[in-house]
Amino acid sequence: MVSLRESSVGTERQVITELPGPKSRALQARRAHVVSAGVTNGFTIYIDRAEGAILVDVDGNHILDLGSGIAVTGIGHAVPELVEAVSRQVAAFTHTCFMVTPYESYVEVCEELAALTPGSHAKASALFNSGAEAVENAVKIARHATGRPAVIVFDHAYHGRTNLTMALTAKNMPYKDGFGPFAGEVYRVPMSYPFLDGLTGAEAAQRAIHQIELQVGARNVAAVLIEPIQGEGGFIVPADGFLPALSAWTTQHGVVFIADEIQSGFGRTGEWFAVDHEGVIPDIVTTAKGLAGGMPLAGVTGRAELMNSVHEGGLGGTYGGNPVAAVAALAALRVMRERNLVQRARELESILFDSLNALARDVNIIGDVRGRGAMVAIELVEPGTKTPNAAAAKGVVQYCNDHGVIALACGTYGNVIRLLPPLIITDEQLADGLGVLAEAVRSVS
Ligand code: PLZ
Asked: How far is the CA of 300 from the centre of ligand 1 (A)?
């Protein structure tokens, strides 16, 4: 039995130095000598330990985490069940390589993925290390299964930073600039962005489909790849009907519909998967982040006939489905079920919307409040317009930073503040964080 450390973190935000504190500043100076300048930090506070929704930095500040390490630690930090499962596994064995000698936890994670992802059809999965790797493999499989080259992606999309996924990602700065040439046969079409385009889901889908048919041709398309709620692109929730219409078109034309649920999956939106809100059944689902509660693990889960169309040995990688990450996933899923965290995401949704809608009525720089579950954002605009206000978003993040709250910006125009609290956050903690956010927005209004 592994002994767990005593809790000394508590549940409250508590800032005892200026932020970043002296020890964090010293570490930041040290990193400048050895860490690539290409890797940046949103907040330059160095973390010593964490529990629940609280991060403790090296200066002893207790920081409220409304970002969950970008939608990863939905079950919270240092959850005893996960700590214990991981510790036991580390002591048993850390690696064999599933392609060399297999182990049960990999199979069990694939059983979980088959059961949880939408649709009752036969499914198979392959496991990888990162979201980008999952997306790359989903595209490989779709091309292999269809024998077609083209991949359709959307404006504002984010799918990763590897060579293929850079091509799939929309935004140039900072993800792509100067890193080309990029992979070919990737075609971008307009997204449904109700706040900016005012179109119904059916209209926006027709616009996208029309462009695919005119510029690519259905018979050349291997896959339509979409985030059901776009994450990095600005928490864009497509208008109702957009995803079902796209999905129907792919079925009609033998195109593989890939839902990238890497940010939106595992209860984050108040359903296990964001496509569940509209009853859409993707042919392939990519997962990562929330899957393993902080350990690096990603999955590609799809119709068995697609996944098994690949020749033997065609998929893999040294670390994919690492046993420590796999048992973490099994523990994280148990915690999600036992604590009813999918339902909790819905409760968080109503708290978030009540508070942010009230704030939006009070100030003139919030153009839109949107999202689902515990994936909710405000889009900041120039007063009374829809013109993006990135300076305000920067100011809000800075204010939150100074006051010990992690809130992240996103969006093609850098003007969206997104909230991704751990699903185990308490009502009191969330109220505290939303209070700081409201002060932050007022301070830049
Ligand atoms: N698909 C939908 O959200 C990762 C990226 C942070 P990796 N999002 C956070 C950054 O700036 O690098 C993401 C995602 C969606 C794919 C990915 C890629 O997942 O695990 O970061 O490779």
From this structure: 15
Ligand 1: residues with CB < 6 A are 70, 130-132, 135, 158-161, 227, 231-232, 260, 262-263, 288
Residue 11 lies in a domain: no
Q: Using CA of residue 268, residue 94, residue 55, residue 20, what is the dihedral sign? A: negative
Q: Are residues 183 and 41 in the same domain?
A: no
Q: Give the CA dihedral 239, 244, 250, 251, nearest 10 degrees.
A: -170
Mean local confidence (pLDDT), 276-299: 98
Whether 320 and 422 share a structural domain = no
Are residues 419 and 357 located together in one domain of the fold? yes
Judgement on whether residues 306 and 178 belong to the same structural domain of the protein: yes
Instruction: State residue 74's pLDDT score.
Output: 98
**Contact 11/54 with Cβ under 8 angstroms?**
yes
Of the three residues 317, 338, 359, the one that is the final residue of a domain is: 338
* Residue 160 belongs to domain spanning: 83-338
State the distance from the centre of ligand 1 to the C-alpha of 132, rounded, in angstroms. Answer: 7
230-253, pLDDT tens digit by residue?
999 999 999 999 999 999 999 999
Q: How far apart are CA 299 and CA 51, in angstroms?
A: 26
Mean pLDDT within 334-358: 98
The preferred substitution site among 158, 169, 287 for testing ligand 1, maximizing ligand atoms within 8 Å of CB, is 158
pLDDT in tens, 2-20: 445 566 799 999 999 999 9
Q: Which atom of ligand 1 is nearest to the CA of 288?
A: 20
